[in-house]
Amino acid sequence: MLDKNGIAKRIAKEVKDGMFVNLGIGIPTLVANYIPEGVNVVLQSENGILGMGPFPFEGEESADLINAGKQTITLLKGSSIFDSAMSFGMIRSQKVNLTILGAMEVSENGDIANWKIPGKMVKGMGGAMDLVASAKNIIVAMQQVNKAGQSKFLAKCDLPLTGVRCVKKVVTELGVYEIAAQGGFKLLERAPGISIDEIKNATAGKLIIDGEIPEMQV
Q1: Which end of the chain has the lower number of beta carbons within 10 A, N or C?
Q2: The domain spanning residue 170 has which CATH number?
Q3: What does the pLDDT look like over 185-214, one tens digit per residue?
Q4: Residue 167 placed within a domain
């Protein structure tokens, strides 16, 4: 079973040379630490940054440099800082090639819920709805089951939706999945040490298993 860093490391393999990539709050921010050597990408944060680097080492943080989740970050040579209006202009005009988001629930049709739990205080929806409405390619980084052991891979999301039929791929502590064109979580890879039965038990929505499923190489 993968931890959060393992999920981020696997997703980093989806990042290709020359991409502009938006990293959402939570697990996605960790992807910045695992960009493969020799792969040149530009990481974007919707609070107004192009050219984010990995997280700073302890003692080297600057309170003036933060990402959208208010975590301290580093900047790479040639990076730029601008206002959020310009940042969302980039997002809405589809200049971002890949968006990596966290989620509380994903449906078998590729719907995503990641901004609100009814009854709990929330500051606002943030940039999530702009991102899912405009993104060409969305990969979700999430835990497949909640603390009660209930699946967050559902036939239909129970929580308020952020976007509809927008998710392309999901990476969890148990595996890598593609949202099939006809609907369903198509299993592509198993996390190290995870069995097919464990994945079946953690999936409430439609699960598609086609042939022998390889173990993930992280």
Answers
A1: N
A2: 3.40.1080.10
A3: 999 999 999 999 999 999 999 999 999 999
A4: yes
